[in-house]
Amino acid sequence: MLGLVALSMTAHAGSAAKRETFGTMPDGRSVDSVLLTNSHGLSARVIAYGASLQSVSVPDRDGHLADIALGYPTLKGYLEKPQYFGATVGRYANRIAKGRFVLDGRTYQLPVNDGPNSLHGGTRGFDKVLWTVAAVNHDADKASVTLTYVSPDGDMGYPGKLSVTAVYTLDDQDRLSIEYRATTDKPTLVNLSNHAYWNLSGEGSGSVMEQRLTIAGDAFLPVDAGSIPTGEIRQVAGTPFDFRKPKAIGRDIRIADPQLLNGRGYDHNWVISRKAAPAPRMVARVEDPRSGRVLTLSSDQPGLQFYSGNFLDGTTVGTGGHVYRQGDAFVLEPQLYPDTPNQPAFGSARLDPGHTYRNLIVYRFTTEPARSAR
Q1: Which domain holds residue 242?
Q2: What is the mean pLDDT of residues 329-339?
Q3: Is 195 a catalytic residue?
Q4: C-alpha dist (Å) from residue 38 to 5, 44, 49, 239, 278
């Protein structure tokens, strides 16, 4: 793994996809990995456990590569200390209050794994299962891997057999896209997202508090002490939650705002729109003044969860052999609003037979020159 080791970029003939073995499950099943590369030398490794992004290596302004996604070097870390690093989260990304919802007059109870609430699908969400690598493809300008998983009826308390597909694609425009699709055989709830932790200076390089974030939303969802939305949609103007213009992530994080106290920092959903968009549009942008790397995030989802790495506690050693501490990464998860099943004003997370759920996430990696001193 590249970690903080900066390697000069070299010419590459074209895109490629290389399938390997990442490890073995306790029951003996093999865990595949697929390394996607493009002609500019960018790469993304996807592992079948949790359909997870294990590493993403991109150049800085001087052309030196570094891994900017937090992860573990081996399968052991994902199994023994799961922290959603790069994982596909579902069936319902984010929180459902008290792990309960009502669908067609019937109450369903989910496992609670975040205080009194259900988080990211429960105790054995999609991040903790072995997906199937269904296809590996590449051509002159892109490489992709398709993973599938079938969640049986009643899995983690959710109704319906849910058939899920995740397609990771790295192209020669330096875009890494993730397309989630799902179908069901009976009415159910679906809200999938990816939980990649990013540090544009390189995983394990230290704090991201000086990296500059823009979020294309003029409102956010305040939460209670259990991080469940209160139902209010609050304007960001005049609050620490205003990222409509580029702002260092840490600039306002120590302001004594009750919402920052509830989340121990930022762990909130921004209102990008009131419903899903017909095509991805820019929802966030992050610039790293130190390396010059820029991540632009596009999505078709109505909400964006921004999490400032508040619970990284210095007990995890990542891919490059460095310790991850509080504030050493940020997470941007395009999704439906948290607790939508219990808050009708937020819309609907319902999926019926004959319909297809879809979430298309696109990360584009660029660089910008160093700013001249003033």
Answers
A1: 7-367
A2: 98
A3: yes
A4: 20, 9, 23, 41, 28
